[in-house]
Write a structure and sequence with these properties.
Length: 248
């Protein structure tokens, strides 16, 4: 059975994450010594060095027997905290100290253990990734639909605006007697450079029951704008051809 004796001299030793015994520390020290080309130190000498360094402090001491089948003798072991171990390490040469401190820090901060993911975890990750992809695609599709809808609205608005402008232009032309439906003598003269008499147009309208339009005129206030039928029948002038529209 392992025999333990705790010596108290200046504080209580608390076993925990920073706890290390002399056997484990000796392994680290000798590994560092070998890396630096130095001879390893024996357990008895190392324990004596530890006791000398930690004199007056609290540490744990116990005896651990070796395998009796191998005929070994029992070994004394010292238990100490991390700070005490660093002070013991400081007794080594500069080269050994550098290697040893790295080993002690690695012991205090072990690398995280990476485990293999379970099938369920893999499926969950895949599902989350697919859900993210689908959500992103949905946002992109919605943005594209919104863009197309805005473009369609703009196009419809532009067409409606153009159509309204054409209607206003035609209405204005009709009011001014410059239209494929009816036209004044002055308007036809501007295009054909011929001044047609208006009296035959009036006679034809009376005989055929058609009433000419009255349109504003800067010189006379109002003048008559004669129907397309009258122009075609009397003077052979086709207002549709003159004004590039279709009679309706």
């Amino acid at each position: 059975m392992t025999k333990k004796t705790q010596l108290m001299a200046g504080g209580v030793l608390v076993n925990g994450a920073e706890y290390i015994d002399s056997q484990e520390l000796l392994v680290l020290v000798n590994d560092a010594r070998r890396e630096c080309g130095q001879k390893p130190i024996r357990n008895n000498d190392f324990v004596a060095r530890i006791k000398d360094e930690l004199v007056g402090e609290g540490y744990e001491t116990f005896v651990t027997p070796l395998d009796l089948k191998k005929g070994g003798a029992a070994q004394e072991v010292i238990g100490m905290n991390g700070k005490q171990a660093l002070r013991v390490a400081a007794r080594e040469s500069k080269a050994v100290r550098r290697v040893l401190v790295d080993k002690l820090e690695a012991r205090s901060n072990p690398a995280p253990v990476h485990r293999e993911l379970s099938t369920l975890e893999i499926l969950q990750i895949a599902m989350e990734s697919e859900q993210g992809r689908l959500a992103e695609k949905s946002r992109a599709d919605e943005a594209e639909r919104t863009k197309a809808e805005i473009g369609s609205r703009r196009e419809a608005t532009a067409m409606a605006t153009a159509s309204a402008a054409v209607r206003k232009s035609n209405q204005l032309a009709e009011r001014l007697g410059e239209h494929e439906k009816h036209a004044t003598v002055k308007a036809v003269k501007k295009i054909t450079d011929t001044e047609y008499p208006w009296r035959p147009l009036k006679k034809w309208c009376v005989e055929n029951g058609l009433e000419p339009h009255q349109v504003p005129d800067n010189q006379f206030g109002f003048v008559r704008s004669w129907p397309r039928e009258a122009w075609l029948a009397v003077h052979g002038v086709d207002l549709t051809a003159l004004y590039g529209g279709e009679y309706a």
